[in-house]
From TrEMBL:
The keyword Glycoprotein does not apply. This is Alpha/beta fold hydrolase. Residues 32-137 form the AB hydrolase-1 domain. InterPro entries: AB_hydrolase_1, AB_hydrolase_fold, AB_hydrolase_sf. It comes from the Bacteria. Keywords: Hydrolase. GO terms for molecular function: hydrolase activity.
């Protein structure tokens, strides 16, 4: 089934700065779903799932968070935190006129989805959380991303050279997921360093005591043998969230190259969230 697709943008004003964020809409209607990308990746990584969801009648939006994809990329580390990203998602919902949405994401996007549910539970219809980065991922995260921060700060020419080299590769010639990898490598040193710095030294996700208060229905997808996104984190999160279902992926590649099963699970879940009666709006943040 073909679905409509359109690109949009909106602007955020804060402390004398005006930042532009870009998004893509798939489908139409009032059953909103927002999908968020992984760290340093573009929103286009969620295109296959967005199309699958929209084909079933959901109105899906993929967003480039600040510092990613085609959104603005300020070089100030203070511009980047999981909380700031969550506020960008809420600004997107306001811009679209969407009172609520199912919020979902991968890796960084998973953590941002949890943060949205923590700071604005009344806006969240449900959660699709793939590969959250929580307590068991600290060491792996440092190993994976510290070299990027060091390269951006002390060897910026290496980041620039890689960016220039990857830009010569035709995206259509290499296939979808290799092209996403190439787009992820298309970084500028200062903004990339700022993103990693901001996330390293800021709040990574809601702490356990806050996660336990998130009552939105959720599916949590974990991958075995994934060192950066430990299986134990996904299992732990599914146990903490009062209304969560744990889904075990066959591998980190299943949702990339054999997505039918997980697409079906995500679609059925999102549709069920919108078929359920709307929860009463809560005026303030949940506390424990």
């Amino acid at each position: 089934m073909l679905v409509s697709e359109s690109v949009g943008q909106f602007f955020l004003d804060s402390e004398g700065h005006r930042d532009r964020l870009e998004y893509t809409e798939y489908g139409s209607g009032d059953s909103w779903v927002v999908l968020l990308h992984g760290q340093l990746m573009p929103r286009r990584m969620q295109q296959p799932l967005a199309r699958a969801l929209a084909a079933e009648g959901l109105h899906v939006v993929t967003l480039d968070l600040l510092g990613h994809g085609r959104s603005d990329r300020p070089a100030d580390p203070q511009a980047y935190s999981v909380t700031a990203f969550a506020e960008q998602v809420l600004a997107l919902l306001d811009h679209l006129g969407a009172p609520q949405a199912v919020i979902g994401g991968t890796s960084l996007g998973a953590n941002v989805s949890l943060e949205v549910a923590a700071i604005a539970p009344e806006r969240v219809r449900g959660l699709i959380v793939e590969m959250p980065v929580l307590d068991n991922a600290v060491e792996a995260g440092i190993i994976a991303f510290a070299p990027l921060l060091l390269a951006a700060r002390f060897a910026p020419i290496s980041v620039t050279a890689l960016r220039l080299a990857t830009r010569w590769v035709p995206r259509r010639a290499v296939g979808f997921w290799p092209s996403i990898v190439l787009d992820t490598l298309d970084q500028r040193p200062a903004p990339m360093g700022a993103v990693v710095h901001g996330l390293f030294f800021g709040r990574v996700a809601p702490p356990a005591r806050e996660r336990r208060t998130i009552t939105a229905p959720a599916i949590v997808v974990g991958h075995p043998a994934d060192p950066i996104h430990p299986f134990a984190d996904a299992q732990m999160l599914a146990g903490e969230l009062p209304n969560a279902t744990f889904v075990e992926a066959g591998s980190i590649l299943e949702w990339r190259y054999r997505p039918e099963r997980l697409d079906r699970i995500a679609t059925n879940f999102a549709l069920s969230c919108w078929r359920a009666p709307r929860r009463a709006r809560r005026a303030s943040r949940s506390t424990s």
